[in-house]
Amino acid sequence: MEQSIEIDIDATPERVWEVMSDVERWPEWTETVTAVTRLDSDGALGLGARARVEQPKLPPTEYVVSEFDPGRAFTWLATGPGVRTTARHMITARPEGGAHVRLSVEQAGPLGAVMGRLFFKGLTDRYLATEAAGLKARSEGTR
User: Domain residues of the chain, as ranges?
Assistant: First the structure.
C-alpha cells in the first residue's frame, strides 16, 4: 500500500534538495521526526547511506538509501519482521520556476500491507502532509 503527497515549493530545486537531503536536520523543520542519526558517516547522503530515524508514535527505524539521484531524488528502505517500508523523496523543476515535490511511503510484506491499511494509514497521511508543509516552509525561508 502506497500513500503520497505532492506540493509545489517556491524555491529552486537545488534549495529544496539541500533541505531534503540534509536528513539529520529534519527535526528542525518537521515535528514528525524527533531525531535522525547517520549510522555510516557525517558526509553527504548517498547510495547505501544508513540512518536511524525516530518519530513520535513509531519505533526507531533504520533506513538504507537504496536509490539515489543527486539533486533530484532518493529512496530509502527499512525492513523488519514481515514489514518493508519504502520512502521516496522526489523533486522536479517546475517550468514556471520553483520545485514540485512528491513524498511517498509504501508499506509491503505480509504484515506491512495490513498494518499500513488498518493502523497507520491516518498517521502516515498526517505525517506526509506535515513533512511536505515543513519542507516547503524551510525551503522558502519561512521556517
Answer: 2-139
Global pTM value: 0.91
**pLDDT tens digits along 79-104:** 988 889 999 999 999 999 999 999 99
Using a 10 angstrom Cβ sphere, with 0-12 exposed, 13-18 middle and 19 or more buried, the burial of residue 74 is buried
The class that CATH gives domain 2-139 is alpha beta
What is the H or E stretch that residue 117 is in? helix 110-118
